[in-house]
């Protein structure tokens, strides 16, 4: 009887985190939303827009940053870095030659910005830090690429190679903690976002010098625990996986994916993944989905993992599954965008705009290598709503695909090529928030365009 009650309670927990369970109106407190899935179903959400259609407001954001917007109540939070000298020409797509091995010599300002969701006004902004950057970043990266996270009382902004800065949602500085400055592979900079669970803010900093996963007290910033990691630079955001066996922290790293319990003790690991990891893990009702797809690696797998694993669960070279790996695809993972789980299917869009769909339970290919027309370059992760999958390109085109096992492109929503778009959008109520290089766009059904230049 006790066992039946235990699994009934876990079923309720899993339903609360299940993709598609969210409805518009929920807060969007972290990268990819409440359950880090990028899925909301509500018929009020916009499905079609353009640079002149369904733009509720457009607000210029000072400086540059690829952190995604997050939302709590009527407040939108994001980060940015401003400088008096930012003349570097940035290109779209994957390319060589963007590495910068010397940091700029100019003074920069690391900012946390709060925007009113209803009209786009900037409610408050704080300079968290001012100074010369301690490390370099890739031309396409920024010094504000980590998405902040909020619990509704506090906003936690993490800037790699600086530290964590905590504010109340109304803008009062609460605490800050420096975490050190470390070299990254080829001077590409940082990008792993913080996550919250229980009383902890979890920060992953995989670098070339001294990698670690750390848990900070959310109220004070005190260090609760720290785990040293052998892995080198990666840009993947950790994922809190709630499953019937336990809750664990899953980290995609360079060459290996690891899971830890909530005290930082290792649970399992999986080798033979790509040298650099950017996509973040995500979960369906009964499987965890992993992707590691560095373009120059021979192994670029998508893997589905069952709960309860312990120790080394690496697949032998000739195997596609084992006791804890339900299925795998050796060369299917994207490089930058994370996977999407929606309505029993896994969707993967590559940086070059190639879309594939797989059965989430078996890994069977439904369709693959469908080129999105004129898609060209993708960094943002896809999202889903109301039976449709949305893929935002770096050129501001959102490709809308019918969900399901058959590929069907419904429409392309174009915001124009005046900006570059790398950040993954956020959803709040009936509003879609898309961040470009210079502005934040709020999209709603059938509204007149209004622009704010605060």
Structure characterization notes:
This protein is mainly beta. The chain is 4% helix and 38% strand. It has one helix and 34 strands. It has one helix at 2-17, and strands spanning 55-60, 70-72, 75-83, 108-116, 122-131, 149-150, 154-159, 163-168, 173-178, 195-197, 200-205, 212-217, 223-228, 239-242, 247-252, 256-260, 266-271, 282-283, 288-291, 302-305, 311-312, 325-329, 340-342, 345-349, 354-359, 365-371, 383-385, 388-392, 397-402, 409-414, 426-428, 431-435, 439-443, 451-452. It has a five-stranded mixed sheet, with no helix packed on it. The protein has a five-stranded mixed sheet with strand order 14-15-16-17-21. A hairpin with a 6-residue loop joins β29 (397-402) and β30. Residues 1-21 have low confidence and may be disordered.
Oligomer: single chain
Radius of gyration: 20 Å
Low-confidence stretches: 1-21
Which sheet architecture does the biggest sheet show? 5 strands, mixed
Mean pLDDT: 91
Per DSSP, the total helix count is: 1
Shape: globular
Amount of helix = under 10%
Widest β-sheet, arrangement of strands: 31-32-33-1-34
Hey, roughly how much beta strand do the residues contain? 35-45%
Terminal-residue CA separation: 61 Å
Structural class: mainly beta
Number of strands: 34
Write the layout of secondary structure elements.
Elements: H1 2-17, E1 55-60, E2 70-72, E3 75-83, E4 108-116, E5 122-131, E6 149-150, E7 154-159, E8 163-168, E9 173-178, E10 195-197, E11 200-205, E12 212-217, E13 223-228, E14 239-242, E15 247-252, E16 256-260, E17 266-271, E18 282-283, E19 288-291, E20 302-305, E21 311-312, E22 325-329, E23 340-342, E24 345-349, E25 354-359, E26 365-371, E27 383-385, E28 388-392, E29 397-402, E30 409-414, E31 426-428, E32 431-435, E33 439-443, E34 451-452
Parallel strand pairs: 1-34, 17-21
Antiparallel strand pairs: 1-33, 2-3, 3-4, 4-5, 6-7, 7-8, 8-9, 10-11, 11-12, 12-13, 14-15, 15-16, 16-17, 18-19, 19-20, 20-22, 23-24, 24-25, 25-26, 27-28, 28-29, 29-30, 31-32, 32-33
């Amino acid at each position: 009887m006790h066992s039946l009650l235990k699994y009934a309670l876990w079923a309720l927990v899993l339903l609360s985190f299940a993709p598609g369970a969210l409805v518009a109106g929920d807060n969007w407190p972290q990268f990819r939303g409440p359950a880090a899935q990028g899925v909301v179903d509500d018929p009020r959400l916009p499905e079609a827009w353009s640079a002149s259609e369904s733009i509720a407001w457009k607000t210029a954001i000072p400086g540059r940053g690829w952190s995604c917007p997050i939302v709590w109540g009527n407040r939108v939070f994001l980060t940015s870095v401003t400088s008096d000298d930012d003349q570097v020409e940035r290109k779209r797509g994957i390319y060589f030659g963007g590495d910068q091995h010397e940091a700029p010599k100019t003074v920069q300002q690391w900012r946390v910005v709060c925007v009113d969701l209803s009209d786009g006004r900037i409610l408050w902004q704080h300079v968290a830090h001012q100074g010369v950057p301690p490390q370099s970043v890739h031309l396409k990266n920024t010094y504000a690429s980590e998405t902040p996270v909020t619990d509704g009382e506090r906003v936690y902004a993490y800037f790699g190679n600086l530290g964590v800065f905590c504010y109340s949602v109304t803008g009062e500085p609460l605490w800050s903690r420096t975490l050190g400055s470390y070299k990254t592979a080829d001077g590409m900079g940082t990008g792993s976002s913080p996550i919250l669970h229980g009383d902890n803010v979890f920060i992953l900093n995989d670098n070339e010098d001294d990698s670690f996963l750390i848990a900070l007290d959310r109220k004070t910033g005190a260090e609760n625990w720290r785990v040293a990691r052998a892995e080198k630079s990666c840009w993947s955001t950790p994922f809190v996986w709630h499953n019937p066996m336990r809750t664990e922290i899953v980290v995609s790293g360079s060459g290996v994916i690891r899971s830890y319990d909530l005290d930082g003790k290792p649970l399992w690991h999986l080798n033979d993944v790509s040298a650099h990891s950017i996509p973040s893990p995500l979960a369906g009702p009964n499987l965890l989905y992993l992707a590691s797809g560095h373009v120059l690696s021979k192994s670029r797998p998508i893997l589905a993992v069952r709960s309860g694993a312990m120790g080394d669960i690496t697949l032998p070279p000739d195997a596609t599954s084992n006791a804890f790996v339900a299925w795998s695809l050796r060369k299917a993972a994207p490089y930058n965008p994370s996977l999407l789980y929606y309505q029993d299917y896994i969707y993967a869009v590559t940086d070059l705009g190639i879309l594939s769909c797989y059965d989430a339970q078996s890994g069977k290919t439904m369709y693959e290598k469908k080129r999105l027309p004129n898609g060209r370059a993708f960094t943002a992760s896809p999202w889903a709503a109301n039976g449709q999958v949305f893929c935002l390109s770096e050129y501001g085109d959102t490709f809308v695909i019918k969900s399901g096992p058959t590929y069907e492109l419904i429409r392309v929503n174009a915001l124009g090529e005046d900006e570059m778009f790398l950040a993954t959008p956020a959803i709040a109520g009936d509003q879609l928030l898309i961040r470009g290089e210079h502005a934040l766009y709020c999209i709603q059904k059938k509204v007149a365009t209004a622009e704010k230049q605060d």
